[in-house]
Specification:
Layout: E1 5-9, H1 14-25, E2 29-34, H2 41-48, E3 51-54, E4 70-73, H3 85-105, E5 111-117, H4 142-161, E6 165-170, E7 173-174, H5 176-189, E8 203-204, E9 207-208, H6 209-219, E10 228-232, E11 238-239, H7 240-251, E12 267-268, H8 273-279, H9 286-297
Parallel strand pairs: 1-2, 1-4, 2-3, 4-5, 5-6, 6-10, 7-9, 8-12
Antiparallel strand pairs: 8-11
Helix pairs in contact: 1-6, 3-4, 5-7, 5-9, 7-9
Length: 298
């Protein structure tokens, strides 16, 4: 991507941290905004070479921050509580205010990236792309509805201020090595493959965090007015059954399979062909990583 000064909101999050290190390694001057509520995390981020700003994006003044060439809005207010009007209102207020205030404050940036989610779509047996109608389901998570609203604010601000913008709808970024290790360890132990948490889908199009960071960093190259929306998932559709069977075949073990209905998301399927056409195919495939790790464990 074009070098310059960049701002990453939510710099202490999983994606924010990885993105900061990636951009620093590519010669960018990186600034990071977060609440830095975890002890010691701000000092850690500064140690990488990031200039930090302690802010609550929904309410703190932002006009003391400088201008930036590019802004990556990764910050999100996350609340998994599925019931209660106060919780829903808090999630909505924080995410929409943050998106609007970021877009307004850096309306003159060369490019803005807004991180969104594949959770805007209803669960489907079909691959979901940018043209699939979004149907955020607040009964699943309030966060999804808030992200839908934040996208609409991003569209308005992009058009109103002529700010080149790209919206990235992430579909389940994971570390493939972590998933593969869980799979191989389970086969060796003769138990079903455990999920990182109950939400990890049974059938999905996962993208490795390294590929996602690369796409995110380069996404501002294709920012536009009105915003370009890109579905960001992996290059293959896999199931937990398939991964288990691959590992079991390599290891010469009998696979023990789980019931798909035990998953919070049974399916989470992305058609990322538009992203791949613009920025290239992903480097990593989960099935290959599982097979390689199983070979090493023999």
């Amino acid at each position: 991507m074009t070098k310059g000064t960049v701002l990453i909101t939510g710099v202490t999050g999983m994606i924010g941290q990885e993105l900061a290190r990636f951009l620093l390694g590519h010669g960018c001057e990186v600034h990071g905004v977060a609440r830095f509520s975890k002890p010691g995390i701000e000092e850690e981020v500064k140690g990488w070479g990031v200039t930090t700003w302690r802010k609550d994006l929904a309410k703190d003044p932002l006009d003391d921050l400088p201008d930036f060439d590019y802004v990556f809005h990764e910050a999100a207010f996350w609340n998994k509580t599925k019931h209660g009007a106060e919780d829903k209102l808090e999630v909505m207020r924080n995410n929409t205010l943050a998106a609007g205030r970021v877009m307004y404050q850096w309306r003159n940036a060369k490019g803005v990236m807004l991180a969104s989610t594949g959770g805007l779509y209803r669960e489907s047996t079909e691959l979901l792309n940018e043209d699939t109608p979004v149907e955020p389901n607040p009964d699943r998570q309030n966060y999804h509805l808030a992200k839908f609203a934040a996208e609409q604010i991003g569209v308005f601000c992009s058009v109103q201020f002529n700010t080149p913008t790209v919206i990235m709808r992430y579909f389940w970024p994971v570390r493939f090595e972590d998933v593969a290790k869980r799979c191989v360890d389970a086969v060796l132990a003769g138990v079903p493959m455990p999920g990182k948490d109950q939400e990890e889908p049974f059938e999905w199009t996962p993208i490795d965090i390294e590929d996602l960071i690369d796409y995110t960093a380069r996404s501002v190259e294709v920012a536009s007015v009105p915003p370009r929306v890109l579905v960001c998932g992996g290059g293959e559709l896999v199931t937990r059954r398939q991964l288990t069977e691959i590992a079991a075949e390599v290891l010469g073990k009998e696979p023990v399979l789980e019931d798909p209905s035990s998953r919070y998301w049974e399916r989470f399927l992305a058609d990322s062909s538009r992203l791949f056409g613009l920025l290239g195919e992903p480097e990593k495939r989960l099935t290959e990583v599982v097979r390689q790790m199983a070979e090493q464990a023999k």
